[in-house]
Design a protein that fits this description.
The complex is a heterodimer of chains A (220) and B (785). Chain A contains 10 helices and 4 strands, in the order H-H-E-H-H-E-H-H-E-H-H-E-H-H. Chain A folds into 2 domains: 107 residues, EF-hand (Recoverin, domain 1); 102 residues, EF-hand (Recoverin, domain 1, Orthogonal Bundle). Chain B has a domain of 106 residues. In chain B, helix 20 packs antiparallel against helix 22. The chains are: A mainly alpha (220), B mainly alpha (785). The interface between A and B is large, with 78 and 71 residues. Chain B: It is a multi-pass membrane protein.
């Protein structure tokens, strides 16, 4: 089992730092965690993530795990999913959860918002056709309510349908009876989540602490 | 009516007349009426007409034990109603003032209400003094026990928990550290000034100055609420300033008692300081614990109130008041107890009580807090006229300057530290508003009033200084904050309704962030929030919420609530052309379909002409709900399960008409307790499936159109009328067609009757309250969203 350089490789870290925007300490911490999860192997498999205890109670754990293996989150035009990821991909996915720096320009902020919303969008759009269809949206709502006991599929359908209707009416406006709304495109998605300030809400505080090691180290 | 263009002068005149009348009554009531009040036989000239009694008079013959006086028909006895009468008059005056201000449009948009009320108080006080009476002063006991609690409860019960907890660190910093800084700065510098001044102020010692500093440095929630409510500032700033004003109560209580206790001794040791810190922790945490206990008790009690809906609001009020008083017994922070009680009980109580109780609670709280608020400001004005004053230019001016400077320095310094830990940093505009919004108010006044004049010979001077500061902050800062907010273009409150999409994505994001934290192995604040939520759901909700509601997930609760709101709006607007904004009226489900139709049935073709005809008829009949006709395009058609049963459709429609009638009859029963307290779902199902409700109605030409039934779950929680009927009165059961998309039959032509169905359906859902036994959705913020 070749170990992924057990000593922090400065050059490698530096390139990663430039690419993802993390600081060197943060990369070191995340690398430790990666090694912990992958049991000191070079790559991470889905099963490794599934073993995390705390994720068990999360209703959308499968989607979260899938997001790590989704090529669209690694590269601009990636398609499909992979079976295993390396540290670089892990870090790339984590970088979506960085908070915006204090002084950034409006464009950078907008770019960050788009990137984060793109990540969210990819999580919903499972068949990668560029739109979230009604079925996919229903699936999202079902997953959200999956931990909450059986309250009937009809309620989830009702909720998903109402939400879809709302998106359609906000994005497209009045539609003639024979028009057909395919699904939520990325632009519509941006529109409905416009007011939520996603760039500040979607972040993990940990990734902003430049100073101390807050990672919970369990014995491997 | 538009007051601006309306009969301005007439209204004004009317208001003035009322004003003068009430003022006259008030002043008159305070005059000594003892002499005129008691004897029953004055003014009883009519006594003789009453009968055959001897007109015996008070001056009797000697020895006669029984003196007959004429029966008093009309007597004047003011003394025995004096107290309640005066109280009521004051409340009446306060309310009429409030009324009056809103009738005078120009003034109320420039000057905040609090200022106007103080001016009125000054006038009334002046009038009373002119008459020669002693104006009543704002007694501290009355203030702290009767006037303050409603305002705080109102604030605590409707506190936005999410923003509060997100900014808790910042708020605590401002409340605790900021207040401490202010107290010591002001107190210390004032002492220096007093020493420098010379013989007039030399008797003011350090501890008294510190005491004064601690009293005056606390930001007052009443004043902040009064001013900030009118400027509609963005939620972050509002919660920061307001949260600070609430939480600094603990600091004020501790400092006040500390300095008051030891000012007679004149010395404070290190042990005392240490004890003071411990005391602070005890006071604040103790207050919160007391409040939380009462909150849980209230929540638990509300679980069993399904049979006695009428007294539900009473529990909320009494438990909260008890929390306040219990905290005061131990000299803990009553304000924090009240806030904790309201915040803890709210999510559970609202899940248990009926919709009407919720409305009652809301309106009572608003009413009481409004009246309290008004009375406080009026009394401040009156007390200014009444109170013993001792004006000392140096002291007062120094106080004012130091207060302002301390506030600004404190805010700037603290923000510098806080911004290191915040994601959303506070800009300098925010800092300015926070500093400027630090208003002082009646709490400071009452605290000074409580001082014992023997221990504190400079009490009157303190009073004067405090009143000056209060006036300055309320008048100058209160009046100018609104134009300043506009000038600085501070972000205002966004009046957006929370949509179902936002709710879905907020929840999704919460889970996502928790998951990422777990993957990182970092136990961050999402992790703990999630744990708390799960604990809440698993144990606490089961205990405190009655029935099935305890298991209802938040998303569904939100959805039902939204549905409910839509229904009520629709009914209120009379099913008018303007639909509630949450209901997308322009898109129907037919526009959103799966890409590949699941079934490809061969469907009858319509000729173009027929299509047009149908469309035309529809258009002329669709006045209300603007449903769209599905186009007869065989590629986009989805088969309707009921396609073959048009007779059934017909009967359904008739039944619904009858149901509407029955509902309007039910209206009469809404306020009467329903005899069998069924579970609400059974009650609703009973209503829906009641065969008596259905009758036949003559069917006119109607084309059944697409009935978009947005909320048509088949779960027990809500009932879908149409699907109900399809099962011919059986209980609703699972059905794969969550949305009933019906294809109008080309063969039959029926006029559209759906506009009535929609309101009926909505009507049914929202009127399905067969009296107090129903459970309903309430407007509430999720406890831990």
């Amino acid at each position: 089992m070749g170990s992924f350089q057990s000593l922090p490789d400065d050059h490698q870290y530096r390139t990663l730092s430039q690419k993802t925007g993390f600081s060197l300490e943060q990369i070191a911490i995340l690398h430790n965690r990666f090694k912990q999860l992958s049991q000191n192997e070079e790559t991470l498999w889905r099963d490794d993530l599934k073993t995390i205890q705390d994720l068990e109670s999360n209703p959308i754990r499968y989607q979260i795990i899938e997001a790590f293996f989704d090529r669209r989150n690694f590269q601009k035009d990636g398609v499909g999913s992979v079976e295993e990821i390396g540290f670089e991909e892990f870090l790339t996915v984590m970088s979506y959860f960085r908070a915006p720096a204090h002084r950034i320009t409006e464009e950078q902020r907008e770019e960050m918002r788009r990137a984060k919303l793109r990540f969210l969008f990819n999580m919903h759009d499972t068949d990668n056709d560029g739109t979230i269809t009604l079925e996919e949206y229903r699936h999202v709502v079902e997953e959200l309510l999956s931990r909450s006991g059986a309250l009937g599929r009809e309620t989830t359908k009702g909720i998903a349908d109402a939400a879809m209707l709302e998106v359609a009416s906000i994005s497209v406006g009045p539609m003639a009876p024979d028009e057909f709304y395919e699904g939520i495109t990325f632009e519509h998605f941006l529109k409905i989540l416009k007011g939520t300030e996603i760039e500040t809400r979607m972040h993990i505080r940990f990734l902003n602490m430049d100073t101390t090691v807050l990672c919970k180290q369990r014995c491997v | 009516r538009d007051w601006r263009t309306g009969c301005f002068d007439e209204e004004c005149f009317g208001v003035l007349k009322m004003f003068i009348l009430v003022l006259g009554l008030l002043v008159g009531s305070l005059m000594p009426l003892g002499g005129a009040a008691s004897s029953p036989d004055t003014g009883t000239g009519h006594g003789g007409s009453h009968g055959n009694k001897d007109p015996g008079y008070a001056k009797n013959g000697n020895g006669t034990t029984y003196s007959k006086k004429p029966f008093p028909v009309l007597s004047f006895d003011y003394e025995h109603v004096r107290l309640p009468f005066e109280i009521s008059l004051w409340v009446l005056l306060a309310s009429l003032m409030k009324l009056g201000f809103h009738l005078i449009p120009r003034v109320s948009s420039i000057v905040p209400e609090s200022c106007l009320l103080i001016v009125v108080g000054l006038l009334v006080g002046g009038l009373i003094k002119l008459v020669g009476e002693d104006p009543p002063v704002l007694e501290s006991k009355i203030f702290f026990f009767y006037l303050l609690p409603p305002i705080i409860l109102d604030a605590g019960y409707f506190m936005p928990i999410r923003q509060f907890t997100e900014n808790l660190g910042t708020i605590l910093m401002f409340a605790v550290v900021g207040t401490l800084w202010n107290s010591f700065f002001v107190g210390g510098l004032l002492y220096g000034v007093c020493q420098l001044e010379g013989h007039k102020l030399a008797y003011v010692d350090l501890l008294s100055c510190l005491l004064f500093g601690s009293i005056i440095s606390a930001v007052d929630p009443v004043a902040v609420l009064a001013v900030f409510e009118e400027i509609h500032i963005n939620e972050l700033l509002h919660i920061l300033v307001f949260g600070e004003s609430l939480l600094n109560d603990a600091v004020t209580v501790v400092l006040y008692h500390l300095f008051e206790e030891y000012s007679s001794v004149g010395l404070i040791t290190v042990t005392d300081v240490f004890l003071g810190i411990v005391c602070f922790l005890v006071v604040s945490l103790g207050g919160i614990v007391v409040g939380a206990i009462y909150g849980i008790l209230a929540a638990f009690t509300s679980r069993f109130t399904s049979h006695t809906r009428v007294i539900e609001p009473l529990f909320v009020f009494v438990y909260s008041y008890m929390a306040y008083l219990s905290a005061e017994v131990f000299h803990l922070s009553g304000i924090m107890a009240l806030i904790a009680c309201g915040a803890v009980m709210r999510p559970y109580v609202e899940a248990n009580i009926s919709h009407k109780s919720h409305t009652t609670i809301k309106y009572f709280l608003k009413m009481w807090s409004s009246v309290s608020d008004t009375l406080i400001f009026i009394f401040l004005g009156v007390s200014t006229v009444a109170g013993p004053h001792q004006w000392n230019w140096t002291f007062v001016v120094a106080t004012l300057i130091f207060c302002l400077v301390a506030r600004v320095l404190g805010v700037v310094g603290l923000t510098f530290v806080i911004n290191k830990f915040r994601i959303v940093k506070l800009t300098s505009k925010d800092q300015f508003i926070i500093a400027y919004g630090g208003l002082r108010g009646a709490i400071a006044f009452s605290l000074v009033y409580l001082l014992n004049p023997e221990h504190f010979p400079m009490r009157n001077m303190f009073l004067t200084a405090i009143i000056t500061v209060i006036f300055f902050t309320v008048f100058v800062q209160g009046m100018t904050i609104r134009p300043l907010v506009d000038l600085l273009a501070v972000k205002k409150k966004q009046e957006t309704k929370r949509s179902i999409n936002e709710e879905i994505h907020t929840q999704f994001l919460d889970h996502l962030l928790t998951g990422i934290e777990d993957i990182c192995g970092h136990y961050g604040h999402h992790h703990w929030k999630d744990k708390l939520n799960r604990f809440n759901k698993k144990y606490v909700k089961k205990c405190l919420i009655a029935g099935e509601r305890s298991k209802e997930p938040q998303l569904i609760a939100f959805y039902h609530k939204m549905e409910m709101k839509q229904a009520i709006e629709l009914v209120e607007s009379g099913g008018g052309s303007k639909l509630p904004s949450a209901l997308p009226s322009t898109v129907s489900m037919q526009n959103i379909q799966p890409k590949k139709p699941s079934q490809d049935r061969a469907l009858p073709q319509l000729s173009k002409a027929r299509e047009e005809e149908i469309r035309k008829i529809l258009r002329t009949n669709l006045q209300r709900t603007r449903q769209r006709l599905r186009s007869y395009n065989r590629h986009t058609l989805i088969a309707d399960p009921y396609e073959d049963g048009w007779n059934e459709m017909l009967i359904k429609r008739k039944k619904m008409k009858e149901l509407e009638k029955k509902i309007s009859q039910m209206n009469n029963y809404l306020t009467v307790p329903a005899p069998p307290p069924d579970s609400p779902t059974i009650a609703r199902a009973r209503l829906a499936s009641d065969p008596q409700a259905w009758g036949l109605k003559s069917v006119t030409e109607s084309i059944p159109t697409i009935k978009v039934d947005l909320a048509s779950p088949q779960s027990p929680e809500s009932v879908n009328v149409v699907d109900e009927f399809s099962k011919k009165g059986s209980q609703p059961k699972e059905e794969e067609g969550g949305l009933t998309m019906k294809v109008p039959s080309p063969a039959k032509q029926r006029k559209d009757k759906t506009p009535d169905e929609e309101p009926q359906q909505r009507l049914m859902r929202c009127l399905s309250d067969p009296g107090p036994a129903a459970e309903e959705e309430d407007e509430d913020e999720p406890f831990l969203p």
